[in-house]
């Protein structure tokens, strides 16, 4: 039986045995992101029980996430948070530590012990785009629109999105997307490898459920080892290093299977 484990600032975590669903729940602000939301996303990752095999990231309302809450750039800032204008006056070490803290909300989605799936509808802009990129897989509604607007604001994407973007679409296309800040629609996202699947908006929940079921059908340890192998290949392993990693992983799997059969 599904249970609402916890709810923080604009983030709801629901755990149902092997599936955790993290929901951005500020539809009235198009799920604009704040430091409080980033802390909540980090806490959601830390709160996952060991039974979880698949983490689904979804959002309420018409937009997945419109990006950083623009109030952060005003002198008043967001209530209870340090204005980014004040943050800009911090030392380099303080800035580095603060941004590293923000990034934690975006890093745990690629843990080897689970597979993460982003279900994206409407706008995924800036930080919203990077949050979708943080996940292993992306299912998109036909109205999904990705855009990396940081450069046009005089900033850079700094929430962990540059590496997966280049891995998915290549350096030249990633540069063009970031430098122009243009929108990438769902059809293009599927064509260039940003989206694994595009479906009509009303079919997004069912398509996500189908993918989750398919992921759960594979034995957990085999999926964990496979994900680790593919991440190693993506990180730049040469052919011989990757073949050695495959042999080691397969040896572990065969021993486990033999032990289970005895």
Description:
This protein is an alpha/beta fold. Helices cover 45% and strands 18% of the residues. The longest helix is centred in the C-terminal third of the chain and has 23 residues, at 239-261. The two termini are 34 Å apart. 35% of the residues are buried.
Q: What is the N-to-C succession of helices and strands?
A: EEEHEHHEEHEEHHEHEHHH
SS-based class:
alpha/beta
Q: Which parts are unreliable, with pLDDT below 50 for 5 consecutive residues or more?
A: none
Compute the separation of the termini in Å: 34 Å
With strands numbered from the N-terminus, the spatial order across the biggest sheet is 1-2-3-4-5-7-10
Rounded to the nearest angstrom, the radius of gyration is: 19 Å
Overall average residue pLDDT? 94
Shape: globular
Number of helices: 10
DSSP, total strands? 10
Main sheet overview: 7 strands, mixed
The helical percent reads 40-55%
How much of the sequence lies in strands comes to: 15-25%
Summed up, what is this model?
This protein has 262 residues and is of the alpha/beta class. The chain contains ten helices and ten strands.
Key terms:
262 residues; alpha/beta; 10 strands; 45% helix; globular
Which helices and strands, and how do they pair?
Layout: E1 3-8, E2 11-16, E3 19-24, H1 35-46, E4 54-59, H2 84-87, H3 92-107, E5 115-120, E6 123-125, H4 127-134, E7 137-141, E8 145-147, H5 162-169, H6 171-180, E9 184-185, H7 186-192, E10 197-199, H8 204-217, H9 220-234, H10 239-261
Parallel strand pairs: 3-4, 4-5, 5-7, 6-8, 7-10
Antiparallel strand pairs: 1-2, 2-3, 8-9
């Amino acid at each position: 039986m599904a249970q609402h484990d916890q709810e923080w600032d604009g983030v709801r975590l629901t755990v149902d045995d092997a599936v955790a669903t993290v929901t951005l729940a500020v539809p009235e602000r198009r799920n604009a992101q704040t430091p409080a939301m980033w802390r909540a996303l980090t806490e959601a990752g830390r709160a996952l029980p060991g039974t979880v095999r698949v983490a689904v990231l979804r959002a309420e309302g018409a937009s997945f996430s419109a990006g950083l809450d623009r109030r952060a750039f005003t002198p008043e800032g967001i209530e209870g948070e340090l204005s980014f204008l004040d943050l800009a006056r911090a030392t380099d070490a303080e800035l580095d530590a603060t941004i590293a803290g923000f990034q934690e909300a975006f890093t745990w989605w690629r843990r080897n012990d689970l597979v993460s799936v982003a279900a994206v509808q409407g706008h995924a802009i800036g930080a919203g785009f990077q949050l979708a990129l943080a996940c292993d897989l992306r299912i998109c509604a036909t109205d999904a629109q990705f855009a990396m607007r940081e450069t046009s604001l005089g900033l850079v994407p700094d929430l962990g999105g540059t590496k997966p973007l280049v891995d998915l679409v290549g350096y030249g296309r990633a540069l063009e997307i970031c430098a122009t800040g243009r929108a990438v629609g769902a059809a293009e996202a599927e064509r260039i490898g940003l989206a694994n699947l595009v479906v009509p908006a009303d079919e997004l929940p069912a398509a996500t459920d189908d993918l989750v079921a398919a992921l759960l059908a594979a034995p957990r340890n085999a999926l964990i080892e496979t994900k680790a192998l593919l991440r190693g290949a993506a990180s730049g392993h040469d052919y011989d290093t990757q073949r050695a990693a495959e042999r080691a992983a397969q040896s572990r799997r065969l021993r486990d299977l033999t032990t289970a059969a005895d």
